[in-house]
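Thread: Newbie trying to understand structure tokens

Hi all, I'm a second-year student working on a class project, and my supervisor (Dr. K.) asked me to get a predicted structure for one chain before our next meeting. I've only ever worked with sequences, so writing a 3D structure as a token string is new to me. If someone could post the tokens and maybe explain what I'm looking at, I'd be very grateful. Here's the chain:
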Amino acid sequence: MTSFARRARSAAARMHPELSLVSFTLLSHLEERPNCRASALAAHYALDKSTVSRQVAALERAGLIRRRPDPEDHRVHVLELTPAGAAALAQAAESRRVMFHERLADWHGEDLDRFAAYLLRYNEHQDGRERAEAPGHRGEPERHPERAD
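---
Reply by user tm_fold:
Sure, no problem. This is what the structure looks like when written as tokens:
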């Protein structure tokens, strides 16, 4: 896990020299959930607002995101990727695909299937915890129609 985290930090630095792993994570979040507030980022990742503010400022200086007034409440701002931010994430994703292809090229199919199943299981556990901790969650398990429970 330490090696994995080290590679993630390295990937963020390769994408942009000023980009920390936290910044890279926030940038990825904005790609998945555009037009969110900095306060929503802080709440989602359980980070101090001042930490997110510094990261957002660094992303703005790098030209990877921009602030704009929230169309529903002009007193606050939402964050969005710039074309440069989207391109940087696309480049990082392609680099990851190449790296995974190289690392897994000699794995047998059943090993890849097992590895994928373990990753899904690991991520589902975390996703389930995030859902349970989300405001308004009533404790019901999420239904997956494609899976038999």
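A couple of things are worth pointing out once you decode it. The helical segments are 2-15, 21-32, 38-45, 49-61, 83-104, 109-133. Confidence is low (pLDDT under 50) at residues 134-149. Feel free to ask follow-ups in this thread.
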